[in-house]
Amino acid sequence: MKFAASLILFVAGTASAFSPVAPAFSRAAGLSTTKVFGGDEYGASGTSFYTDVEKKDSYASLDDILNEKCKDEKLQQVIRDMLDACADITEALRTALVTVEGSANTFGDAQLSVDVIADNIMWEACKSSSVVREGASEEDPIVRDVGEGEYTVCWDPLDGSSIVDNNWAVGTMIGIWGSETGLIGATGNDQKTALIALYGPRTTVLVGLEDGTYEFSYGCTPEGCQLPDGSWEPWICSRDKIQIAEDCKIFSPANLRAAQEVPGYKKLVDHYMTERYTLRYSGGLVPDVYQQFTKNQGVFTNPTSKASPAKLRLAFEACPFGYLVEKAGGKTSDGVSGGSVLDVKIEAVDQRTPLAIGSANEVDRFNEYLELK
């Protein structure tokens, strides 16, 4: 695995805002790590959400956290293997141009050079792992034998093909199931862990551990992370036991076309605007949901309708993010029954699903407005 500074892809964030939010909101709602600054005093939009996380004197290493929060040594190994793959994807994205590969995946989507590079890295990581038995990729959604281990790894190698050419943040989504269930016939609740990598100005990865969701940052060199030989820890724990508040003022409304057919969805979007929520939507699933962990709040909605059916993949996208969000105190909806998306049985690798995910009370509001039972 090469070691270098984090990738310089930058997400513009599509930071359109409908109206101001009271600066005291984050404090009143118990959102301890994000402040809302606004007005002329700060020269920023009244709907801007800034972190107040202070720099620490030292940071725990990946090994420190895994040894304490993941007692299963084989699960530790698969996490390390996947983080190595995310680091390699980081390095590849720093130098690869975004061009059409001249091929298409099984969904008919044109493959970009970076899609193929990231997918190849993931396959190689699974094949070389001592603990992985099967792999399945969004680019080729078939469960394939790769080794003699016990884990089934399912991934979307590079989510955000429609925005990566604009140099916005993109990511990798990984779900990991054990040999007792495999993937087909399992549910998201059966995952042993999940990882979501975000390649932006920094590379950060969310990982589900025994007592919650943790974030690891790649290539950072703050004080306390230098090794005795003068080198630096490749991965440090930048956030631990992340919590997503029950209430929020940030919304990410995907599949807005469905609002033309689903009156409840139109009513919900109207509610967000009337109540002065802040729009944070880039069109990339990873940055649009990942912000719930950095802002400690938010809701992402993607319902379905006849003319605008759901496009999200259950195994590659909804399950990994659902696992991490629910571990952080958030909630999910399958967009049909109103139950957790983690309860939905995976019957095909490329199975699609609607989704609402994020702050618990906002997911409940989604179910209420769309009249899901």
Name of the CATH class of the largest domain: Alpha Beta
Rounded to the nearest angstrom, the distance between the terminal CA atoms is: 48 Å
Shape descriptor reads globular
Q: Number of helical segments?
A: 8
What is the total domain count?
Answer: 2
Question: Describe the biggest sheet?
Answer: 8 strands, mixed
**Can you tell me the CATH superfamily of the largest domain?**
Fructose-1,6-Bisphosphatase, subunit A, domain 1
Q: Biggest sheet: strands side by side, in what order? A: 6-5-7-8-9-10-11-12
Q: What is the CATH architecture annotation of the largest domain?
A: 2-Layer Sandwich
Rg over CA atoms, rounded to whole Å, is 20 Å
Helix and strand succession?
A: HEEHHEEHEEEEEEEEEHEHEHEEH
Present the secondary structure layout.
Elements: H1 25-28, E1 34-39, E2 44-51, H2 62-69, H3 73-95, E3 100-104, E4 110-112, H4 113-128, E5 132-137, E6 140-145, E7 151-159, E8 170-177, E9 191-199, E10 203-209, E11 212-218, E12 235-239, E13 250-253, H5 263-274, E14 278-279, H6 285-294, E15 299-302, H7 314-327, E16 331-333, E17 355-358, H8 360-369
Parallel strand pairs: 5-7, 13-14, 13-15
Antiparallel strand pairs: 1-2, 3-4, 5-6, 7-8, 8-9, 9-10, 10-11, 11-12, 15-17, 16-17
Helix pairs in contact: 3-4, 5-8
